[in-house]
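If you are new to this repository, start here. Below is one unmodified record pulled from the training split, so you can see the exact layout before writing a loader.
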Amino acid sequence: MKRFAPSIPIIFAILFSLMQIPYTVIGADTESFDLSLSDAVKTALQNNLGLKLREEDVAISEGTVQEAESTFDALLSADIGAAETNSAPVTIESITEERNAAWNAKAQKRFSPGTELDISWKNGNLDTDSNFYLYDPIYNSGFTLGVKQPLLRGLGEEVQLADVNSAQSALQASSFLVKSEAADLAAEVKKAYWQLVYAYQNLEVLKLGLTLAKSLRDDTAAKINAGKLASIDIYQPESEVARREEDLISGERAIGVAEANLKLLMNNRDWLMPFSPTNKPETAPVTPDLKTVLDNALENRPDLKAAAMEIKATEFQVNKAENNILPALNLVGSVGFGGTDDTYGNALESSFNDSDTQWRLGVTFSRPFNNSLAKGQLRKALAQNRKSRTSLELLKQNVRRTVRITVRDVELALKAIEATNKTAIATEKGLEAEQIKFDAGRSTTLDVLIAQQAFSNALSAENLTKVIYAQTLAELDRIQGFITFAD
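And here is the target side for that same chain:
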């Protein structure tokens, strides 16, 4: 009984029809989750742990801003206390018993020009057995307004707000780095998704290769039975079937690895549910303009914006450090009024109606001999500023290099798709011809196996170039700071 090999065009039709439907996981009874590229990216942006860590950096920077702003918080303080002394007399007029108490309140506030104000309210009483005092007990109450104004070091909003402005710039830098992390993550998810797509496509190619090898083995067995081939000729196709079964196992493992990488990026907690990707790589030609892409990258990249804000943060610190080199010259003054009487009510009333007054005005000056601390801080601030500027320039250089490489990769990927498509068609025709010759007895099993392998390799290469093209487009978005979602 004569046996015929399956029609090659029919096998190809089956293969390409399989490639046009959503991929199914290995095992017909295994439940899978249909996953689109857009859903994969959105899920990763919501759940990725690395992105969450970067968001915590923003919260830390917000706390740093609050710490810097605390310099200008109003400070309220109060105290209350009492004391008593009993001692043996040493003179006729010695005080042997004395009791006193005090209750005070104070408010302090610094303003952005550097001005410091404090308002204090002091109260006390003294009860003693001395005959020297006009009142017994004695109560006093008084209010004092104090002011301190820097004239050199610490003068002006630019210096006083340096820490606040620096912290706010660092906060903006942290926010930009979150966006940069998100753009990088979106690109990584897309690349991992397309890698999973390729793993499924390659598995289909491997299945086709195994089917072809089994068909050739059956044809060889039929020819041996018909006496057209020697019995030893069966070993070659049988060994090839075994090898391709091993390749199929490796292909299944590749799906698992690609799926695990994607789940890790998405922070997917269901590691038992396989993914079934629903998107196919787009092959519509994209021709990016090098100058446009470079301009977009330099203008939109969040990491570049973050680096610029870091420079700004160091500039505030440089200004502050330069000001700290100056000596401390401060104008200080205070005015106050109060009253004293034999009851607290009378003392308080006299503070306003018949008050005692006081005032003070002066200048204070101080400067360390070597001023090493201020000089060291200035040196560090200048070095940090230079370092930040150099980092930005290095980042820009890397962006320019990456843009050139990626734009060229897009162009080459399109050419590769065209080339591998032609190769797939050519190897398909070669396999058809080799199969016909084998059926006619003018070709060996080895020739057919070689043609089969060439065709399988060509199909895998064509699928891979399409995936590489899709991954290169994802990289093109990333280097411009874009996050896009597939339809």
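Two things worth knowing about this chain: The CA atoms of residues 117 and 199 lie 71 Å apart. The beta strands are 33-35, 75-86, 97-110, 116-128, 138-150, 275-277, 328-341, 356-366.
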